[in-house]
Specification:
Length: 157
């Protein structure tokens, strides 16, 4: 199996975080066209042309909210990766950042669920986002416990 050196892996992850941030910004710029494309795409509900203007505004607002939360989570992940690069992983600050990222995932899931009535795939995306948030919370709990153990060991020495 391919093994990437730790420093290279962190650098690749940082680059991916920056690229992802620019993709989110592009999504914000293109949001009205993307939402219109989603509405015009037929599925088992038929063509969504019957969505009212208020419904269209709700979907667009929800789309923007999702993108803002994703951008915030991406910035926090960038800070986490910067902490890893600096070797300051097991700190309360890093644990807090991981906690916030998990809540961002759960919030994105809730927003996806809220438009699931219009778009069936958003229900699946909502489950995926909430499950991702749950997985991140498990990792957060592990890092939090390791941070507590490290603090105890630092006090002992």
């Amino acid at each position: 199996m391919l093994k990437i050196p730790r420093n290279a892996s962190v650098t690749i992850s940082l680059i991916m975080a920056v690229i992802f941030f620019f993709a989110v910004v592009a999504g914000m710029i293109m949001a009205p066209k993307l939402v219109q494309l989603m509405i015009d795409t037929p599925d088992n509900f038929g063509n969504r042309g019957e969505i009212s203007d208020g419904g269209r505004c709700y979907v667009l607002g929800t789309f923007y909210a999702i993108l803002v939360i994703i951008a915030a989570a991406d910035i926090m992940m960038f800070k986490i990766l910067d902490n890893v690069r600096k070797g300051i992983v097991f700190t309360e600050g890093t644990v807090a950042l991981i906690r916030y990222v998990s809540w961002c995932c759960i919030a994105v899931g809730v927003f996806f669920f809220s438009i699931g009535g219009y778009f069936q795939l958003c229900i699946i995306a909502g489950f995926a986002a909430v499950f991702g948030g749950f997985c991140i919370r498990v990792v957060k709990n592990v890092i939090e416990e390791a941070t507590a153990i490290k603090s105890e060991n630092d006090l002992t020495v």
